[in-house]
From TrEMBL:
The keyword Metal-binding applies. It comes from Paenibacillus hemerocallicola. The keyword Hydrolase does not apply. GO terms for molecular function: carbonate dehydratase activity; zinc ion binding. This is carbonic anhydrase. Binds 1 zinc ion per subunit. Its cofactor is Zn(2+). Pfam families: Pro_CA (PF00484). It catalyses: hydrogencarbonate + H(+) = CO2 + H2O. InterPro entries: Carbonic_anhydrase, Carbonic_anhydrase_sf. It is an enzyme of class 4 (lyase). Its EC number is 4.2.1.1. Keywords: Metal-binding, Zinc. Gene3D superfamilies: Carbonic anhydrase (3.40.1050.10).
Length: 198
């Protein structure tokens, strides 16, 4: 196991070297200048969406969003799973400290979280060297790992559930909270919950 980890670490080091090398020339050639903006979103809204690789450029392009326009939060599935976790904290900070006046929760079709298998992930923990007793300690301390890792079967319902959680959160003011689903191939957006009506 140690030998495999060493090989992975070597590959990661080479990737990091490549990134830092590119970054050095990016800064030296002032390629950052077109991206200069403030930390406050010009369009005054925050987006919670999935970390899917297909959305990195497609989502902003499909919404006419440029650097500086919005606050963007990404997570697996683009959903809020708990009322007082890091995702919800980020939304609240965006509202109260960074001037966001609306929230858009955007899921997507063909999401990996819609067919995730928590049992298989637990097996992969063990394959990658996480001790069985570590998993048992976590379970004994109240974390039901498979429940924590579970995804959803219907992206529309998952988005509506997140919108409802945000909208009824005790620390979120009365602002529009919207739910949308994007097609990761075409960029087409469908509104599944419009926040102006609530």
């Amino acid at each position: 196991m140690q030998q495999t980890y060493g090989r992975e670490q070597h590959v990661q080091q080479r990737l990091l070297d490549e990134i830092i090398g590119f970054n050095r020339s990016f800064v030296e050639q002032s390629k950052f200048e077109p991206y200069l903006t403030s930390k406050f979103p010009d369009k005054k809204f925050v987006i919670l969406t999935c970390m899917d690789t297909r959305l990195i450029e497609l989502l902003p392009a499909s919404m006419n969003i440029k650097n500086g326009d919005v606050k963007m939060i990404k997570s697996a599935g683009g959903v809020v799973s708990t009322a007082f976790g890091g995702i919800m904290r980020s939304i609240i900070v965006a509202i109260y400290e960074l001037g966001a006046e609306e929230v858009l929760v955007i899921g997507h079709h063909d999401c990996g979280m819609s067919n995730i298998n928590p049992h298989q992930i637990k097996s992969k923990f063990l394959e990658r060297g996480i001790p069985e007793d570590t998993l048992q300690i976590l379970e004994n301390s109240g974390l039901h790992i498979e429940h924590w890792l579970r995804g959803f079967s219907d992206v529309t319902e998952a988005i509506k559930s997140s919108v409802s959680l945000i909208r009824h959160h005790p620390l979120v003011p009365k602002i529009p909270i919207h739910g949308l689903v994007i097609d990761p191939k075409t960029g087409k957006l469908d509104v599944v919950d419009e926040g102006y009506r609530n």
